[in-house]
Design goal:
Blueprint (H helix, E strand, L loop, with lengths): L14 H27 L18 H29 L1 H6 L4 H12 L5
Helix pairs in contact: 1-2
């Protein structure tokens, strides 16, 4: 049994949510890689550079284009997630029952690496 399948055989997250989460992961990788390219054009800490193999963009302007493209992908994906959550009721079902006490307990469990 995989992690995202509960005992009854149903997936924990629907396909659309999983696609949106992986789209966010891709956008974050692009943001990090392009951020390294932007940083290398105007180094703040002298002697700290990122290798060309892990940077996205060969110079600052090109890296900025990648950075803004990933930013808009992240914004559009967030908007799609919000619309999907409102339309299906998933947002209300998953987020509104959360109380501040539950958030504090989840943070404590996460910091102790006790994830359900």
């Amino acid at each position: 049994m995989t992690k995202n399948v509960i005992a009854s055989g149903h997936r924990l997250h629907p396909l659309s949510v999983r696609v949106m989460h992986w789209t966010n992961a891709l956008a974050m990788v692009v943001l990090i890689g392009s951020g390294w390219g932007i940083y290398d054009d105007s180094v703040i800490i002298h002697g700290v550079y990122f290798p060309k193999a892990i940077r996205l963009g060969s110079w600052a302007a090109e890296s900025l284009l990648w950075h803004f493209a990933a930013m808009w992908l992240l914004v559009a994906n967030g908007g799609a997630y919000l619309v999907y959550g409102l339309a299906t009721g998933r947002l209300r079902e998953r987020l509104l029952p959360i109380r501040p006490r539950d958030i504090v307990q989840t943070v404590r469990d996460t910091l102790r690496l006790k994830l359900a």
